Amino acid sequence: EAPLLKKEEPPKETKNPGLTIDTSQDLEGLDDDDDNMIVPITPRTAKGLTPHPAKRNSTPGLSAIPKWLSQDDDEESGGTAEPPVTPVGRDELALRRHRFFSDLLVAAQAATEHRVRFDPLGPSVAGQENLSPAAELNTLLTRLENVTSRLEQTVASTDSPKTLSHSNSSTQVNFSPTLSVSAGGGMSSQAFQDIISGPLTSYLTLSSQLGGEVAAHAKLVSEAFQTQLQYLQLAECRTVPSQAEQGQLLQPTSLKIQAIQELREKNRTSQYFNHLSAISESIPALGWVTISPAPAPYIKEMNDAGQFYTNRVLKDWKQKDQRHVDWVKAWVETLTELQGFVKQHHTTGLVWAKTGAAGLKKVTSDMQTHKNPNLRTGPAPFKAPVSVGAPAAAPVKAPPSNKPPVFARDGKKWLVEHQRGNKSLVVEGAEMNNVVYMYGCFDSTLTVKGKINSIFLDSCRKSAIVFDSLVSSVEFVNCQSVQMQVLGKVPTISIDKTDGCQIYLSPESMQVEIVSSKSSEMNVMVPKANGDFAEFPIPEQYKTTVSSTGLSTVVVESKG
């Protein structure tokens, strides 16, 4: 028989550079020993794979193949059997497997290179260079500077003085035909405008949502603030006016405040009467422009004056409508901001424009003592005697004007107002949810029969109240020389800004709670076993000490 390989053939070229077939050996003895026919192959380890140690009976060139694709696993899983052990079969199997894993690695690498990166700033636009955060910030700053330059040019072009008028008001306010207010304004007027655009705007918005008398009241408040803004702008561009001229300039603000208070008096039966009262009691804070040398505390006093009614608004509407709570907060914040504004810009009073040294009298050499010896030998100049005047008395609230008396029932309210010298006022047939409101009475006595909800005495003088029992409380506000007597039971007695209050308790009211603030001359009459009363004064003087844990306040007993 002819030998298997008689003619020497040139070596075959392989597409895989990792395999090298060595055919330099002598192949004439292939018939005698088949083992000598095995062609040695020098494998090249595929990229990313670590060669495993060579095992016995392992196929050359497959040392880098993972175990999960080994020949043994193929046979166990029912795959095709390995071709016959021949040099050609082994070479083809090794080439196919190596080519397969090479293509697999190339595909994996290509997928990795084409992976999409997520950019939080959005997709990039072709042909446009992506800016860094620092470059974007510089661009924004440049645009902002350009806008600022345009605004400055606009303000400069409108620098001519003009007369201001409030567009929301039906009547234009002119201070004087010869005066004009600059449109720009100084730091003071700008800070006041911040109050108008801030908490006051919130108050106006909430008032319009509530509607009714509250919205109409808020419109007058807005006009009052706009009028004061014009007054502040006027003060920035002129000197202090005379007393008569100043009264004329303040007349628009005074008329606005008067209109606000009159609207409250016309709507005493409104369900929003407490809202109107809170504004009417505190709106005189705009009169700080006439207070010197400390106008800021005056605003605080006016804010406290309306606190009684704001507390009643919170009490009545807190569980019903949150808008009323926000309304109270907005108004209180407006007055608080106004107080801070005055404290910062007008600490000792309204600041008018300065005139420098133009108004000073020039002192010549003959008027100077060290240059004119005759002035030293002559009589001393006249000096006016220093007058020590009495200290300024605290402002006392004027008594209520002589208005027609009122004694009527409006739903759940009993209104007793402007009574003079009437000692026989009696409320009968009242129900447990009724409220008695006594206002502006002088030298009068009111008797309430039956058990009702609460009683309020506001701005009464030398008046008395006698009642059986109450569900809630009896309150005294801005009263002078008043008395009360309970025949049954009362849970709470509240006294605020009252001078002179005599309280007569019954045996059933010994557990009463008395809350007082800014009041004086308060006495409690406690019944004795013999029917007489024992008098106990409510403390008015306190001593406060500072300790490591804070402040400690105790009552100071009078030993005189």
Automatic annotation (TrEMBL):
Q: Does the keyword Cell membrane apply?
A: yes
**Domain C-CAP/cofactor C-like, residue spans:** 400-538
Q: Which PROSITE patterns match?
A: C_CAP_COFACTOR_C (PS51329), CAP_1 (PS01088), CAP_2 (PS01089)
What organism is the protein native to? Homalodisca liturata
Compartment annotation: Cell membrane
Specify the protein's topology with respect to the membrane. Answer: Peripheral membrane protein
The entry's protein name is: Adenylyl cyclase-associated protein
Going by the entry's taxonomy, the superkingdom of the source organism is recorded as Eukaryota
Care to name a GO molecular-function term for this sequence? actin binding
What GO terms describe the biological role, i.e. biological process, of this protein?
Answer: actin filament organization; cAMP-mediated signaling; cell morphogenesis
Signal peptide feature range: none
What the entry lists under InterPro entries is as follows: Adenylate_cyclase-assoc_CAP, Adenylate_cyclase-assoc_CAP_C, Adenylate_cyclase-assoc_CAP_N, C-CAP_CF_C-like, CAP/MinC_C, CAP_C_sf, CAP_CS_C, CAP_CS_N
Q: Where is this region: Disordered?
A: 1-90
Query: Membrane: is it a keyword of this entry?
Result: yes
Query: Which residue ranges have biased composition labelled Basic and acidic residues?
Result: 1-15
